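Researcher: We're reviewing a set of sequences before deciding which ones to prioritize for further study. For each one, I'd like a predicted 3D structure that I can look through quickly. This is Peptidase S8/S53 domain-containing protein. If possible, include the structure in token form so it fits the rest of the review sheet.
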Amino acid sequence: MKSKGKRQVRVQVTDVPSFTKWLYKTLPTAQLLQVDSASRTALLSNLHSKDYLALTQCPWVTFVDVANREAREEAHLQNADLTVNNVEALHLRFPHLTGVGLVASVKENQFDSADIDFKHRVIPSAGLTGVANPHATTMATLIGGGGNSSPAGKGVAWQSTLTASDFANLMPDNLNQLKTLRVTVQNHSYGVGVENYYGLESQAYDRQVLQYPELLHVFSSGNAGNQAAADGPYAALTGFANLTGQFKASKNTLTVGAIDTAGQVGLLSSRGPTYDGRIKPEVVAFGESGTSEAAAVVSGIALLVQQAYQKQQGGHLPPSHLVKAAILNAADDKGSPEVDYAAGFGNADALGAVQAVQENRFALGKVGQGQVQKIPVLVPAGTSRLKATLVWHEVEGLPNAPAALLNDLDLKLTSPATGREWLPWGLSTFPHKDSLLLPARRQVDRLNNVEQVTLALPEAGPYELHVTGFGVNTGDQDFSVVYEFEQRFAWAYPTAGSPLRSGEKNRLRWHRPINTGEKGRLEFRWAGTAPGRWQVLQERVDLAKEQLDWTAPADTAGLAELRMVIGAEVFATGTVVVSPVLQMQVGYQCGEEVMLFWPKAEGAEQYQVYSLGEKFLEPLVQTADTMVVLSKNMNGSLYYAVSPLVAGLNGQRSLTLHYAQQGVSCYIKNFLAQRFVTDTVLLNLELSTTYGVAALFLEKKVGSEFRTLSEIPLSRQVGYVLQDLEPAPGRNEYRIKVVTSTGQTFYSPTEAVVFAPAKYIQVFPNPIKAGNELSLITHDDQKSQILVYNHLGRLLRQTHQDGAVKSLSTAGLSAGLYMVRVVSAQGQLLQARVVVF
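Model: Here's the predicted structure for Peptidase S8/S53 domain-containing protein, in token form for your review sheet.
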């Protein structure tokens, strides 16, 4: 990292005091900025190129690495869709899993801790002392947004607690501080440019995870998928080995790539392998604009996996290698079959990851050198695919060692009944594009601390997973194994209870683990007390695409069902709620009352009104009407939303409305003159509502008081055009008087209009102090010539201006009487006297 021609580096040493003495003696101009005794690293600055040779020859230095580089966020949020990663299905199936009590840290710039989506759920930290950043706010929202602003503001772990850290320091945060804040997931959605080696940062993150086993670091893979590494074994191979930061090559962390809304890995999503051939990213998630949001989604999923384990195990947190194994094992295969360097082990499935923990489909264990642990697995009939994943977090590697892996475990699947064995999937690591694109094959893995084995269409019955300590060099090695039995078809969205948008495109999603070439038939019916007949929406659905766009019937709220028919099998979604998204508006806010209203949704039995409570939107009142009148004294919140109710189920919730920011006071939404200077006085009136209005009047100021000019006929409309047929030349002032059915009277703000008939001219102020601006009002708003004469008739200045209101500077005029003449483009002459003092 260069700074004014001089450089900074981070060095690792064997003896900090001895190195410090050597540094002061050998490189007296160097500056020692920071020393970390735990990792035996030192940050140096004020170094010249010639100083590098001296550092490499120092007997105490074991590795010289780059210092902190400028970190950059990896793309801004375009849109979010939690259905892609089965988060919405998880929220519906397990509403008690919200992340409450768990803490996530967002390491980058500061997020907006005042956002109502984080209300009372932010822990102050040094990372929350600067200016709020939109990217960081988006990441925090995806992880733990409470959905207070809108349904789109709801994150994965929506009741978790959030804190922040600054990515100016690329090394891990202080361990004691992380423990004090109780952080168990830290999100890193940033990069520093393509780097493909195992350095001091990679080593430090691996070490910290061993020191704090419950902590999971989640990194975005980067948005450099079309670039190449500059050095190393994969140098100049465009499209490979382009993770944006050496810290992402760490072993005990989780790196996340991005897929788009069509389920394809994005072109710019950074890919592996790492410098030593390891698989990165390990998983992908939805990130339409980049891997930043994909990482944030997975961070939220990790929190929910932690909570599921915590509830099951009496409050204890799981080791992070179990959380990682659950996420990787549940991931739905994307990209090339099985594992690949673009999608890793597939697209994260939040529901599947949590179910693995809740259904006890996991094992924790440890093995030493040469030891074997056997895990029995009973495969049920009808399983489409058996999948098992082994993950272990091991001792940190040595920077720039040929391979980062130190403790090598092996996974294999066996059938005791037949004696057959199946090895995990692996990839070619040969540094050539054709080799790196080869499909995965079953093989012994000597590089990764993640291994996965699958078996398509397994026979029902007993199997065993064997975990063997092949090369364990540092005592017993802890590990986690997670397994699942995939079904031939599973709905991801919608599922029972899902709200669908009527009259809009809804993207239906499902999981089809094995493509048999069969087509499906998609059907729909209205549900409820008298279910309708099934309607065919599409014949011959391509099941391999795992998604289909469907527009629900418009302007209707009701219960419905969808189903996919495959041969003789039927896969139903369960009952879903179809409804429009209602727009809540302010009718009025007068004194201690506020009235809110919304359009009617056909088929809705009632409406649920929500208000913002201490932390989240809370149900306030149910009503069969399309409006509600609230007492401000009884309801202190400024934020409200509404959703239709069908058979007690919530439909789509509206955007949350801050009623004091809608420009509506007492019934009057807008009262404006069509033109400030005019020869015809026309005024536009827009009411927020006519509810409760008994009479309307247009009033005009006459002298010092307002008098009724006309009564406005009431109707169902809220917009009016009003006219004064007898305005006085010059300034006229108007207001609206509203009389309610309860006898209350409210007034609009005053609106002024200058009536300027033909041959009208007005100058003001008059008299005027020399040096001030003189304003001239005329009927003609086209370009005119302005001339100023003194009392002797001598022309002193002239200019040209357009507009009904023209201005003239009096700077340089002495006290006295002047004549101002305005000559229009048609030659019409208007003039007025002005006194300057």
